[in-house]
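Action item from last meeting closed. Structure (344 res):
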């Protein structure tokens, strides 16, 4: 049998303070008040002798004379208790760093026009730490968003109120693979140990307009090129131009018909690999960047109406985004550095 605790609760309620006020006005001893309330007598003594709990009142004495005396006030004591209670507990982190939240808000709202195009809080805080700011953890910032302690609201954050959908698994057996399978891709490419190995894909609308999208696996550098038509010939022309501009050793594609000409163009300077059918996760870096680009151009957007300047703007926006996987550096910074090291 568990032994009953003999410890008496030290904190007084508003009702108990009312009782103390009534009994004290009738000159009941403190020890008796403590016994009736089940409190320690020292707790009652501190409550009655605290100057902040006393109120000045007029009392009529002998022959109608009035005197100003100090008496215990339950309401004043409760107000004093509530005020002190607010000071208890750990202080919020932003009280230590008062300039941090305004700076996060400034960078967040300046990074885009809506929740789909703005940088994440993790990216912003990570970049600030990289710059030498003394700031708090991103989880703390999310707690401030939930508690309405900042101008940033939950609906301003893309993934804060979203839910994951259950996806049906698709049978991948006996499906065609255009060229060299991803199973034959060297392990150093799989582990992202060397620079110059890309993933390729296309962003397509419902009117046969498309963009070629490529991501360098090590730096996550993103390339977007608008295509006149969604054909293998146009993809081939764009790839030839990109090979002149960027250091490329291999590219991993899916099995879309627009990439069938890439299967026969392997040489000692460039190798093409192809994922398993219905396996977009095997080129997850470019799928992720495509998703960020889609925030600017939702499905249903006519890609033919997008000017080249807008394509460059979105490409730069993604490449200048701080990435946690890169130590909160940007893909552009890492890509420029690696290009100097490996492609010199």
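Sequence:
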């Amino acid at each position: 049998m568990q032994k009953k605790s003999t410890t008496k609760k030290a904190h007084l309620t508003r009702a108990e303070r009312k009782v103390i006020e009534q009994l004290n006005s009738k000159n009941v001893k403190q020890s008796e008040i403590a016994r009736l309330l089940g409190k320690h007598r020292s707790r009652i003594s501190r409550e009655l002798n605290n100057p902040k709990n006393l109120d000045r009142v007029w009392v009529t004495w002998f022959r109608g004379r009035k005197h100003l005396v100090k008496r215990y006030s339950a309401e004043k004591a409760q107000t004093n208790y509530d005020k002190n209670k607010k000071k208890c507990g750990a202080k919020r982190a932003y009280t230590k760093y008062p300039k941090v939240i305004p700076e996060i808000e400034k960078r967040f709202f300046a990074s885009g026009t809506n929740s789909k195009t703005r940088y994440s809080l993790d990216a912003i805080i990570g970049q600030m730490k990289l710059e030498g700011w003394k700031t708090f953890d991103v989880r703390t910032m999310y707690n401030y968003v939930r508690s309405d302690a900042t101008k940033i609201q939950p609906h301003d954050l893309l993934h804060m109120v979203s839910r994951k959908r259950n996806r049906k698994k698709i049978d991948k057996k006996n499906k065609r693979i255009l060229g060299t399978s991803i199973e034959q891709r060297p392990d150093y490419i799989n582990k992202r140990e060397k620079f110059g190995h890309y993933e390729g894909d296309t962003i397509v609308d419902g009117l046969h307009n498309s963009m070629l999208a490529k991501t360098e696996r090590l730096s996550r550098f993103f390339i977007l090129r608008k295509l006149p038509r969604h054909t293998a010939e146009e993809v081939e022309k764009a790839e030839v131009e990109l090979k002149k501009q960027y250091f490329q050793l291999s590219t991993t594609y899916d099995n879309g018909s627009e990439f069938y000409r890439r299967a026969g163009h392997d040489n000692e300077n460039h190798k093409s690999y192809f994922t398993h059918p219905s396996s977009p996760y095997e080129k997850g870096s470019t799928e992720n960047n495509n998703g960020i680009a889609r925030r600017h151009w939702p499905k249903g957007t006519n890609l033919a109406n997008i000017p080249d300047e807008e394509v460059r703007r979105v490409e730069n926006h993604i490449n200048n985004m701080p990435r946690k996987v890169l130590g909160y550096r940007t893909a552009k910074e890492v890509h420029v550095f690696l290009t100097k090291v490996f492609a010199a």
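Note appended to the action item: Residues 1-7 have pLDDT under 50 and may be disordered.
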